[in-house]
């Protein structure tokens, strides 16, 4: 009895699995390895916000994510988002009253922390996030720009948008954040909004509240770009949101 049940389970499992299995390339040098396929699916689930609240990259995907972030795919993915955002922005009719704003998140949206995550003492994917260490890195103000976002920023300024940077960095980091942005080419902004040093709300509450303040001050949020879904959901999200990739961490 136990044995036939085992057979039945195997049979069901096989029949369910086979249609998918047929779509998979046969093993061999040209075929995808099973682990690669899982990691792609994992990344897609992350980017679509089907996977929420994850605390770390699955161990078998740490290598995959590292290669993705350092390779040209990540850069091209960012470039495409920026290009689409520009197409959208070009089509808007600005009133010229200086109230049309574009909201940019900072980390992994306009500035990249890849040099930090690549450090030996950070051990990307293996040691849990350490806010003390991360904020020390932020205070160094040496994060490079994400090229696609910098180009979009320049195009938006040219089109007449006002830019607002809205970051989860704490206010005590205002000076280095400002210095870092300027050093890599984000030379002007309407507002640079940081999180109060003692603010306790979550990311969605914080960002929604700040966007609400902007709208109450008469600004129209025409576009809103971030690497976390918590940058883009909640209230006062703006006319259109743009998600740049980030399979490195999740902020809820
Ligand atoms: C912008 O204004 C032009 C000229 O009035 C009009 O043809 C166009 O449809 C408007 N575009 C949008 C997106 O409203
Ligand atoms: C976080 O980093 C700081 C600074 O490097 C270090 O002193 C501290 O021990 C770390 N905390 C944890 C929990 O690893
Ligand atoms: Mg971010």
From TrEMBL:
The keyword Signal applies. One of its GO terms (molecular function) is nutrient reservoir activity. It holds the Pfam family Acid_phosphat_B. Its EC number is 3.1.3.2. It comes from the Eukaryota. Keywords: Glycoprotein, Hydrolase, Signal, Storage protein. Residues 1-17 form the signal peptide. It is an enzyme of class 3 (hydrolase). May function as somatic storage protein during early seedling development. Belongs to the APS1/VSP family. This is Acid phosphatase. It comes from Helianthus annuus.
